[in-house]
Amino acid sequence: MIIDLSQIPPEGMESTDTFETDIFGLEADTRAKADPKCPCWFETYLRRVEDCLVLRGSIGAGFLLECARCTEIYREAIELQDHTLQIDIEGRASIDLTDYLREDILLALPSYPNCAESTVSEYHCAGDQAIAKAKLDAKKDRSSESKAGNSDSADPKGVWDALDELTE
Ligand SMILES: [Zn+2]
Predict the structure, then answer these.
(1) pLDDT digits (tens, 9 = 90+) for 46-72
(2) Is pTM, for the whole model, over 0.90?
(3) In this structure, what are the phi and psi dihedrals at residue 74, rounded to the nearest 5 degrees?
(4) CA 124 to centroid of ligand 1, rounded, Å
(5) Ligand 1: distance of its center to the CA of 9 in Å?
(6) How far is the CA of 73 from the centre of ligand 1 (A)?
(7) What Rg value do the Cα atoms of the chain yield, rounded?
(8) What is the Å distance from ligand 1's center to 134 Cα?
(9) Dist. CA 84 → ligand 1 center (Å)
(10) Is residue 13 within 8 Å of residue 54, measured between CB atoms?
(11) Phi and psi dihedrals of 157, rounded to 5?
């Protein structure tokens, strides 16, 4: 995605696009691949501030990740919202945003992918059954508590935080 810097007005401009091609180069990676159904996208505002190009907005892409628990390949979308990028453009007429977007999105990939945490689809992680059951039980307890109108009981958040720690 090449931006012609002379096209950016002083007040800045919106820049929204998707990459039709895979920009991530993960073909040889067994644990993460670009999702061909969900290419990299960005919805940003570009502004020149002195010798810098400032990009602000949301960027993201879909991936096929290998779950670290059950080794199942699952779909995930990585989105960085309200993301800011500052690029030195001194003496340049144009800039290719691809490398910058690629790098920031790759850095946001989970270091310990867990299919049960997919934001795209619901997966039932075979390596995660015990924890999933514990979460479900906690949820049941919570809903029966609220049905009984027992809202003064201990904050259930503590239970969830403890379970989240287990998951990690
Ligand atoms: Zn899994």
Answers:
(1) 999 989 999 999 999 999 999 998 989
(2) no
(3) -135, 160
(4) 7
(5) 47
(6) 8
(7) 21
(8) 16
(9) 32
(10) no
(11) -55, -40
- The secondary element (H helix, E strand) that includes residue 164 is helix 157-167
**How many angstroms does the Cα of residue 39 sit away from the middle of ligand 1?**
23
Complete DSSP assignment for 94-160: EEE-HHHHHHHHHHTS-SS--GGG-SSS----GGGHHHHHHHHHHHHHHHHHHHTT-TTSPPTHHHH
Expressed in angstroms and rounded, the spacing between residue 11 Cα and the centre of ligand 1 is 47
Please tell me the predicted confidence (pLDDT) of residue 93. Answer: 94
The pLDDT value recorded for residue 137 is 75
Task: Calculate how far, in angstroms, residue 151's C-alpha sits from the geometric centre of ligand 1.
Answer: 34
| Centre of ligand 1 from the C-alpha of residue 148, in Å | 35
Distance 53 CA to ligand 1 centre (A): 40
Contacts of 51 by beta carbon, 8 Å cutoff, 6+ apart:
88, 89, 90
Average pLDDT over the chain reads 84
Gap from CA of 131 to ligand 1 centroid (Å): 12
pLDDT tens column, 66-106: 999 898 999 999 999 999 999 999 999 999 988 899 999 99
113 vs 28: CA distance, rounded Å = 18
